[in-house]
Amino acid sequence: MEFLKDHLPTVRRSLLSVPAANRRALEKAPGLDCDAVIYDLEDSVAPDAKAEARSNLVRAFETAGSSRQERIIRINSLASGFGRQDLDLVVTVGPDAVLIPKVESVSDIVEVSEILAASDRADAIAIWAMIETPKGVLNAASIAADAKRPGCFVVGLNDLRKETGVLPQPGRAYLVPWLMQVVLAGRAHGVDVIDSVFNDFRDEPGFDAECAQGRAMGFSGKMLIHPSQIEPANRHFGPDPQSIADAEEIVAAFQKPEAKGLNVISIDGNMVERLHLVEAEKLLAQAKLIAERKNAP
Length: 297
Ligand code: COA
Ligand code: MG
Fold this sequence. Notes:
This protein is α/β, with parallel strands linked by helices and 297 residues long. The protein contains twelve helices and ten strands.
């Protein structure tokens, strides 16, 4: 397979934020159909509740055992005074990744990376960055270029709107140029990019529209705040039946003896190149992974 030669498929359609102070939500999270859980110690947890939130996470990781979900812990910034203890917790429980809020330059990543390097778990914990400030957007390319480990960007529009004065509007017209800049910066350096949360979790058509837009813009998935957003995010960011059928047709066409040695063929009046074969294989590998995950115990 052309695609699998250098890449393993990743599936990050739905990343649910779960406040670490909310025990009920922590209990529910492992049973939900999201691809990832972002355990939040930052903005959803009041300063007085930070210590209890950390203890809740120790318990949540102990009781959950191994997980089919990717598990990420969003820490407080080191500057806040809470971040150092959050990192001690990260090293204790060993999530798949630590998500640093309000990353503005490479040094924000390096600081955390150096602290993690002191533990023997460092290599197993990826470092992810929230891009949610004007400087974060402007420096996204250098942050992605210098990120030391395979990571992921998560865009945070609540903070970015607060810092810039851009108003929330359907279609996000004034934000799209900045969002595309972050997508481009991530893609240039192999860093995955996840779209921001959508606050009005009862507005189903609004959420649908924003997922469709995020998918079209090249995001891999969406950060979520409520379980009701998981199904639509999985639907929009996952391969749909038609694209699976198209991908199978492309793979089959390139396997025919007459396609041997050809870099470009025609299917139903469309030009199809080997780069489309790579895309098709990637999509089928993701579809397979999603199906396996669904059938996992
Ligand atoms: N993770 C896991 N479970 C969640 C959840 C979440 N983020 N949000 C809600 N639920 C659960 C509730 O516990 C409730 O479960 P139950 O009926 O079995 O008791 C069920 O889903 C329905 O919740 P609902 O009553 O509709 O929502 P709420 O009013 O309790 O909570 C929010 C609304 C927005 C406060 C809550 O969804 C939340 O805290 N979201 C995450 C916020 C966050 O992480 N912010 C930081 C990143 S931007
Ligand atoms: Mg934020």
